[in-house]
Amino acid sequence: MDKIHIPVLLNESIDSLDIKPNGFYIDGTLGDGGHSYEIFKKLSPEGLLLSIDQDQHAIEFVKDYYKDSLQPNWKIIKSNFAKLDEVIKENNIQRLPDGILLDIGLSSRQLEESHNRGFSYLESSEPLDMRMDQTLGVTAKDLLTVFSEKELADIFYKYGEERYSYRIAKEIKKNISNINTVGDLTRLIYKAVPAADNSITKNPSRRVFQALRIVVNDELGSLQKVLDKSFEILNQNGRLSVITFHSLEDRIVKNFNLEKSRSGEGSLLFSKYIAPTDEERISNPRSASAKLRTLIKK
User: Fold this and answer.
1) CA 26, CA 188: separation in Å to the nearest integer?
2) What one-character-per-residue DSSP string does 40-75 give?
3) Has residue 268 been placed in a domain?
4) Where among 165, 187, 216 does a domain terminate?
């Protein structure tokens, strides 16, 4: 299997962790394993890396792709990163992490090889699933069916910052019996969004799909939980580095870091944040909106 996902802010995020060879590090978003592998390469046999992902497909890919590099001190566990404290306890890890890395958002593989989960608005024949962990009960189609027109509009506006949220929600509820696939939904969104709006330069489905994915997977709630738990379990002088891709995520991380720095519990590694270089944006367009923030526990 070939790698698809290019790790965003790879060197910057690894440098931000200030990795000690004998330390204990957690990658809460394994993905294609790019960040994890770079951390692992810097560890001695006495060091430990715990990589977590809720996507079984990602775990299977990494275990196969890196099969010649895997060692007992690189543990790969299927779980939601919001439960990282439970994962540590269940695996009897008697150490405090010296660094935790979180790369929030979809990987390129999840978009391009979604395994029939409908993450991308370009995969017209796929079902409206959008679950990272397919053991979860609620799909995107379930949300469209159960939620009222107002509730859907609120979701699209709050989590997708979609200005035509009410038009889209109305069109969806009017045609809900005919919506089963990604293509069914995208065609309705195109119908609801005014064609004359020249400010729309990207696919108008993008924001709606983002909103549905966030709600299906409780992404923002999980992010807040993992920030709280990560900081709580970090070793003294341990570092929490988070890469975000849109304003809703970044606002949560920014406010959390500011709260900890103002209380004296932590300090900011960067006065603002680290963004990709022009070179990285050109070579990997999906990195364009990425922001890296790092908090050091005092």
Assistant:
1) 42
2) HHT--TT-EEEEEES-HHHHHHHHHHTTTT--TTEE
3) yes
4) 216
Closest CA to 219 of 27, 53, 76, 80: 80
Domain presence at residue 90: yes
**285 located within any domain:** yes
Interval 6-12 mean pLDDT: 92
Helices 182-192/165-174 angle, 10° precision: 130
Do 240 and 294 touch, CB atoms closer than 8 A?
Answer: yes
CATH code where residue 190 lies:
1.10.150.170
Specify if 211 maps to a domain. Answer: yes
CA 21, CA 42: separation in Å to the nearest integer?
A: 6
**What predicted TM-score, i.e. pTM, was given to this entire model?**
0.88
Domain boundary, last residue among 196, 216, 236:
216
Phi first, then psi, for residue 161 (nearest 5°) are: 50, 45
Q: Say if residue 209 is exposed, middle or buried (CB neighbours under 10 Å; 0-12, 13-18, 19+).
A: buried
CB count within 10 Å of CB 44 equals 11
Residue 113: per-residue pLDDT: 56
Residue in 224, 234, 230 with CA at minimum distance from that of residue 255: 224
Q: Give pLDDT tens digits for 106-163.
A: 655 555 555 677 888 888 899 999 998 888 779 999 999 999 999 999 999 999 999 9
Tell me, what's the pLDDT at 114? 57
- Ranges of beta strands (E only) in the chain are 24-27, 48-53, 74-78, 99-103, 239-244, 266-268, 291-297
241 and 152 part of one domain = no
Range of the domain at 164: 137-216
96 in the same domain as 15: yes
The dihedral through the CA atoms of 171, 174, 178, 179 has a sign that is positive
On whether both 189 and 264 belong to a single domain, the answer is no
